[in-house]
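Working notes for the structural subgroup meeting. M.R. asked for a predicted model of this chain before we commit to crystallization trials. I am recording the input and output together here so anyone reviewing the notebook later can reproduce the run.

Input as submitted:
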Amino acid sequence: TIEIDMKNEVSENFISDYDKEIKEIADYTVNFSSFSELSRQTAYHVLLDSIACGILALKNESCKNLLGPVFGGSNIVGAARVFGTNYTLDPIRAAWNTGCIIRWLDFNDTWLAQEWGHPSDNLGAILPLTDFLSLKRVSKGQDPIKVSELLENTIKAHEIQGVLALDNSFNKVGLDHVLLVRVASSALSSYLLGGDFDDVCNTVSQAWVDGSSLRTYRHAPNTGSRKSWAAGDAASRAVHLAWLTTRGEGGYRGALSAKKWGFSDVSFKSKSIKRSQEYGVYVMENILFKISFPAEFHAQTAVEAGISLHEKYGEKLDKISSIDVETQEPAVRIISKTGPLHNYADRDHCLQYMIAIALIYGKVEAKHYQDEIASNPMIDSLREKMIISENPKFSRDYLDPSKRSIANSITLAFDDGSKSEKITVEYPVGHRNRREEGIPLLLDKFDAAIKSYYPSNQSDDILNSFLDMENLSNMSVNEMMDKLVIK
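Returned structure, recorded in token form:
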């Protein structure tokens, strides 16, 4: 006979108020309006950068293969458009497509704190949803949503994701950062669909109840291309949850805090979600742009250091005896890899591989992760000579809110006993400390992406319209999308 003690299985059934964090996300989403000029300008650059990333990704067949309607479906008249394509889809599927192409090349903006992530992933939800709603309004003779409103919603999504990332490390318990894309995008999607404070609470609670995907696909020995579409999946789910709220689906007030069954106890080792500052515009003002290289952000400064060494020692690579690399703790933990690298996704998340490419070719481009380049035996030869170590100062400065550096240093040692100078790069070009240097390069990235993809008459029209912030801000979202789709 098995006796079961049920006394610990009895739950007190009462309706509490929504968890504090859910309420504060909803309050910020619905009521915040104090946008700084810097946050608006940066959001404008985020939009251009995200479009450029998506356009570049559309040259990748493995990405294009995952896009469009599903199971033989077809385009929907008057639905949301996916820029760079001729797809017109319901906003849920359009969010999957848009988020997928923005994220595919690991080239969009980045936020580094206790948790990492890419806040422009939220444009996967916000962009097609605002296009769909604008088209719907125009069909009813109403004013469409302007790009200026799109930018404000982008600022809010960045802030929700980024502020939650400041103090909560989901990666340390094995959860993936796209959880925060779903939370932020669900809040903004609910708001865009006409949701009030209670509606946003309902939707955000559903996003937390979903839990999180595992980080399995970002790490050896399982690194794979899911990391390129995971954000699109999260954006799509966020729009779906918001749509359910419009159909009267309620939320779960203790989604975070419920004993035994809430997110904290089930998924976060019984730790509460922490937040050290109010929601505002901090994240957008301090966002990190990936401008120079399609490379995981913890390696950006390492790549820059490697390129500097290539310029002086590129002819002596076969004489190298060892390569000393000092980096931050997160880079050691997530992108330092030895052994075989099996695919594109494995390579663009390997610190040693990216450094080797920089040393050999003096640049790092998306093509360098393909099998053809990876077969170069010099790459693995250099990887085997690398000694990766954490520099405690780099790790401290990484988390210091006044610095938020992402430092790496590289020193080459040669067979004859000589050494190169140590090249240290603390801040990547896309950091706020190098913003003046970076923005012209970001605009060049946008210009090059557009010209390489669209016919000349269409690319000229896009560049003339988009490179004027005031002009673009005053444009409706549906007009902007008209210029970006393939007719």
